[in-house]
Amino acid sequence: MKKARLILEDGTEFVGTSIGSEGTTFGEVVFNTGMTGYQEVLTDPSYCGQIVTMTYPLIGNYGVSVNDSESLRPWASGFVVREAADHPSHHQMQMTLDTYLQAHGVIGIEGIDTRMLTRVLRKHGTMRGLITTSDEPVSELLGQLRETAEIRDQVAQVTTNTPYRIPGPGRRVVLLDLGVKMNTVRSLTARGCDLIVMPAYSSREEILAWQPEGLMMSNGPGDPADLFDIVETIRSLLGVIPIFGICMGHQLLSLACGAKTEKLRFGHRGVNHPVRDLRDQRVYITSQNHGYVVAQDSLCDTPLEITHVNQNDGSIEGVMHRELRAFSVQFHPEAKPGPDDSEYLFDDFMKWIDEQRGGAAHA
Length: 363
Ligand SMILES: NC(=O)CC[C@H](N)C(=O)O
Known about the structure:
363 residues, Glucose Oxidase, domain 1, Rossmann fold, 2 domains, 10-stranded mixed sheet, 7-stranded mixed β-barrel, 10 helices, 19 strands, 32% strand, binds glutamine
């Protein structure tokens, strides 16, 4: 068993055992409270550049199966668990978590007090940090951490290079891939959509060349405020076709409508965040993964109305344009991991496309 260390930017050090690959990795250290869904978390491109700690103490107990991936590879830059299951069991599993991390070069650590780590992150807010299997002194490693300039555009790393089409008999939808999860693709194809998944930096003209009837913007990694070019493109498409945004897509739609985003102290990452739909007062249990949020006071001079709020901290979870067909949510209606309570939002999007088309029936 090889020793590994997790070191936070304030010098706090946790000593544990290496899982996955060996070496040193840097990133923003965040925590996820889901009891299951570790494979979906690892392969969610929104975690690109982040070291993810799972708060549930036993992770990996049902192994890893390729069918459960939300993209082609894990994107988290590091993985932290209290205990990685040595003897997982599931009839579909193909490998252990440890083997999977090794196969993809992900550096991880187990055997540390993840509860204490989470308390530190909750108290001080999200911090940068590193996982290492090297014996270098802390001061040297922290120097390297400081030198590792924060990558500002993770979306460029995770988006598709070229557009690809998943033909379907129904409504034609362009899905802007800011770091898309497979279940967003599945949720649209399951509704018969003729889907074109496009690179994040596609221009208005490139998008409209497909003659889409709706535009979806996916989730994605990093700070939404860095993505001003994409915000401009979205602004130029407002009112042209119905728009639906998820998570990063929600933040970008809000920015395009004149709102602002801000960073939460430690983010929302888990599968049981209660969200209230203000239109019917129903509360949904939602899957979440975000560090930024739309600033409430920035909405007053915008054409957006708040549709959803977080029951835990009152933060904004959804907005809708007052006049144009554009709406978005901060949580993940595509789930994976997490409950699919809010899947109805994909149906709302389909209805809006039909309304714009004049109410004709569609597949
Ligand atoms: N999952 C997401 O789309 C996250 C959006 C953004 N990267 C945030 O952390 O808030």
